[in-house]
């Protein structure tokens, strides 16, 4: 399965579970019906914001949109994980592992270009993020508690408030774990 077909199948599956029509989900997510229809057909290249809007409208964790129906062992070689690019910023994330039902934990490898700034809207109540910087330097955290991280630094912070990721004049990579307890 390609990343597009996994996302298409997951959107359709979750929309059906929620009992929503294409029009209903499109309206709740703030998307056009044709855009949503294309995504369910495995066409298009949705950005992070589009997928977050769909997940939010469905009331499911973001990772559910990357969940293939078959749970066989999976090896992801470096550089081969599906990448979702943010719209309007140099932020790219690869979902490496999604949480299982009842345990909402997602694991991402995040790549930030030099000079990137990504401001994230609050996630559901109780969500925490764990960031481990692998390479480069980045300013990360809630907008009122940003911390400068260097290689090997770890920062655990509430993500149910606006938060951001910003790099210096060098690219950065980080391991990001989203833990939704609420």
From TrEMBL:
Keywords: DNA-binding
The keyword DNA-binding belongs to this UniProt entry's keyword annotation: yes
Range of residues in the leader sequence: none
Pfam families: Cupin_2, HTH_3
One Gene Ontology term of the molecular function aspect: DNA binding
Domain of life, per lineage: Bacteria
This protein's name: DNA-binding protein
Domain HTH cro/C1-type span(s) in chain numbering: 11-65
Entries under InterPro entries matching the protein: Cro/C1-type_HTH, Cupin_2, Lambda_DNA-bd_dom_sf, RmlC-like_jellyroll, RmlC_Cupin_sf, TransReg_Diox_bact_type
Species per Swiss-Prot/TrEMBL record: Rhodovibrio sodomensis
């Amino acid at each position: 399965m390609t990343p597009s077909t996994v996302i298409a199948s997951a959107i359709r599956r979750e929309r059906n579970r929620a009992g929503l029509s294409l029009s209903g989900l499109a309206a709740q997510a703030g998307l056009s019906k044709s855009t949503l229809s294309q995504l369910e057909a495995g066409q298009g290249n949705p950005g992070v914001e589009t997928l977050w809007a769909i997940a939010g409208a469905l009331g499911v964790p973001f990772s559910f949109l990357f969940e293939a129906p078959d749970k066989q062992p999976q090896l992801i070689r470096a550089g081969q994980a599906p990448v979702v690019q943010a719209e309007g910023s140099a932020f790219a994330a690869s979902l490496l592992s999604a949480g299982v039902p009842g345990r909402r934990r997602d694991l991402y490898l995040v790549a930030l270009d030099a000079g990137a700034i990504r401001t994230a809207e609050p996630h559901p109540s109780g969500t925490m993020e764990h960031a481990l910087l692998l390479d480069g330097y980045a300013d990360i955290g809630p907008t009122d508690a940003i911390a400068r991280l260097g290689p090997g630094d770890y920062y655990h912070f509430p993500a149910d408030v606006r938060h951001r990721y910003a790099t210096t004049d060098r690219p950065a990579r980080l391991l990001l774990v989203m833990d939704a307890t609420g």
